[in-house]
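Sample intake — Cation diffusion facilitator family transporter
Collected from: Paracoccus aurantius
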Amino acid sequence: MPATERIAIGSIFVGLLVLGLKTLSWWLTGSIALLSDAMESTVNVATAIAALIAIRVAARPADREHPYGHHKAEFFSAVLEGVMIIVAALLILRESLAAFLEPRVLDAPLEGLLINIVASCINGWWCWVLLTRGRRLRSPALVADGHHLLSDVVTSVGVVIGVALAVVTGWSILDPALAALVAVNILWSGWKVMAASLSGLMDEAVSEEMLEKIRSTISDHATGAIEAHDLRTRHAGPKTFIDFHLVVDGQTTVDQAHDICDRVEQALKSHLPEALITIHVEPEHKAKHSGVLVI
């Protein structure tokens, strides 16, 4: 089983555990702020399931209907996660409005807060796993899930502090006010997840830093060629697509040109193991005297 799939399955179990703890915390206290925290964990479970499905689809090999593979399936998962985060935020806002109209004294606040703190620690640990492994495995679905959990951890800390203040001061209005702030933060988190995923669906190029690395690699390893131009990149899940035109001397044989291309591809894949590279070889009179000059 691929590492990304194992991590996605782990997210489901962690999400269910945290959801159970936060639901117990809300049930003990009756806090709307703690309810909002539990509702966000409901989204965590749903999106973890969506991420697992997307990762399995993305891992399928290319076929006749999808000759470039199924890698973009992970971006659809991340967009779905963003939508669900926003829906959860709107539901929390509705609950906080009702609590504003009828504030109530919290029950068993100490026990509820301690349980919520344990759940937040578990979330924090799993967030670190998702972000570090997701980036290493170049999985948008895992990284998006990690960013969402990071937002959940931050808001959980705020919820614990706010509920504690409500108990100490006796200001019951702090509870729904805090829930409303959590909802606004979740809305912002959902928007960021969707924006990052849409860039992948729109075939956004690699970062400037990575593009410069690609250019310098071509320049350093295309010895025997003259230049490379019309360099284009895009990313889809763990895959990076790179294509460009490589200009060679008119006297270069097919075998020699092929050797140059193999050398460049090998060098590029040392930096981007999952890269899919297309090189179009052109004769010298096609040179544009721009792009990447070969050293």
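Post-analysis note: The radius of gyration is 25 Å.
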